[in-house]
């Protein structure tokens, strides 16, 4: 059973696991999916890409930002069966740019853009979900967790 | 010109005299030869007509030649100087219109890899002097080489280190050059261009050396070449022009301050405005970096060269630098105007001293003006000091650290290795984190770590009393001698020790003090810019969209903003700097969004205590805490192991020791009433939750954020606490 104690203005409650097993009766306000103020995930409600998403790290803002945006936009709007197959030119240009800055974009085996920038680009401490040490969250996991948490 | 005049005055009589003598002798010679029938003066030197005439002639010729020679030399030198002077003036006048490229790139500063001598020789051509002074410039160049040699040896230049090292030899060099120039000026060199040149190369050389972050090639013009006066002057004037040529005169986006908020804004602007050109101006020598590791992770690093690399290894083995981005992310200030796709450029070691809001421009401390379209003020703050220490005298102040920047970390790290006792004054976030970090070192090194503060327990202004007391016990267990309820009356230096006299009579002797007593927001620009300052919270007053005036935004520690949900506040946390910086960047690119996404903060005090918090967390508010017993799984260490991420680093031995024991037992509760292992604490204001602390409970910040955003009155907070599943991992 839970125990309650008062210490001046502060209330202290100790609870067991069983105490907290029953579902909460606390009511939360429904989220408005069109709230203009809300922080958005990678894809905005309009369908556009949110270039300011922390999940992208510094990809859209660094020296290869323009190339990255071109390639990724092309991919995003691609209607081909193999998505992005019509964007090879942009990806190639982007790859060339990334190779010019090996310090920024360490070239590990992956070819995908978001993963090549792990150490540095994922440095965005975003204060979003996950632990306080969110700096190191790999880019790949953030988009999904973020968009679900924020909506 | 004065010297010239005086010299001319001296020379003129001489010349006149010599010409008179010359004329007289010629006349005499002429007379004795009987050509010119002039009356001969009675005082006659020559002995007789014939022999005297011959002697006289020789004498006359000699003196005449000497006179003419002297005259010619004097005139030539003067003319030459005149020419040099005019050239110099022309050079100066043409400077503002000078296009940057060609000559400038040649004289850019050397990256450490490039031979230092070329850079160091730059001060020497300050002497536009005749051959006689060749020895001096060479000697100076050698001296500079010697100074520069150690700095050039560091092969891995963290931008932080090099510029500081470089700056000091440069500064030493420039003033050293000045007195040498002054002494060796007997021939009529132009003093005014010399004077003009001296102050200029000094700051520009400092600035040049400091922008080592851009590893430019240094193709210094052959300054050590034989001093053809003109070429030296030209080289010298070209040396000084880079200062103005290097700094862009206009920045579409100007960010004042190079910290977390500024960097977040830069990133945001670049993401939203394609091809944006963003200029960051910072008075620190470092590129933007994050502060939290300076008082946590960097101290736990095993790497002995951590003060150089500023990299820290996280628990999961991943290493990263405290710098947000390596130097290659940024573009050089001199490429700013021409960058096709824009970029972020950082001007280090420059301070903005004046802001002209009507004219949309700022002035730097070297009088350079930069105009802007949109400006962000993210000047942060400077650490406060105790009045008693300010008044205590040099010996005490020398042994006191105000901790905020990379250089403070480096110096404290060094100091802590060489002393026996260190005292931290202040019981808030910074003070407690440093105390724990140093306390941990005390086990290895025998360093005595003392922490003193006026409150009753660590984090006394943040945590409710019962929790603050519990935390204090944990801090003590980290090896810290905690002295609570202590007010410092005075500090004196005696017998090579600092003596801290407390108001209640206690005396604490120590070797070094770290003052962590708060941050003073930097509002230096308020007056010139006409920006409002908040009297309650300090900082620049801005609206909910972080705007101070048209085209001016403020973010980070210096911003006192209106939070739609929680009211007017000023927040000094890292995540707030990121969130507000990002928001300011968005608004600078036309978003018009208010502060809405609530920032959070966190702290770790040793391996057992870690918490994340959000909203207004003030211990004077009524609180409701809901706790479960902590198992070994509920420590910061465990959280990082699980999520594979993490800042918190612990030792291997601790991990293996605790986990087998704890996982066996289920968490009983009643008998461990005072063990606040993990839980949730709600801070209430008028029955509405305005702040939440997640105590040793991680990965639940979104729920906390949601509760604060709703701003509802909840009848039973235990029910709300259920949402957090505190018993689960």
Description:
- Helix content of chain A is 26%, strand content 7%.
- With 151 residues, chain A is an alpha+beta fold.
- A two-stranded antiparallel sheet of chain A has the order 1-2.
- The longest helix of chain A has 13 residues, at 65-77.
- Chain A is elongated.
- In chain A, 40% of the residues are buried.
- With 729 residues, chain B is α/β, with parallel strands linked by helices.
- Chain B is built from 24 helices and 28 strands.
- In chain B, helix 6 (161-183) packs antiparallel against helix 8 (201-210).
- The N and C termini of chain B lie far apart (82 Å).
- Strand 2 of chain A pairs parallel with strand 26 of chain B.
Could you name the key traits of this structure?
heterodimer, A: 151 residues, alpha+beta, two-stranded antiparallel sheet, 4 helices, 2 strands, elongated, disordered C terminus, B: 729 residues, alpha/beta, eight-stranded mixed sheet, five-stranded parallel sheet, 19% strand
Structural class of chain A: alpha+beta
Query: What portion of the residues of chain A fall into strands of 2 or more residues?
Result: 5-15%
Average pLDDT confidence of chain A is 72
- Gyration radius of chain A (Cα, Å) is 21 Å
Read across the widest sheet of chain A, the strand sequence of neighbours is: 1-2
**Looking at the structure, what is the overall shape of chain B?**
elongated
The shape of chain A, in one word, is elongated
Strand portion of chain B, in percent? 15-25%
| Largest interface by Cβ-Cβ < 8 Å | A-B, 62 and 86 residues
Total strand count of chain A, please? 2
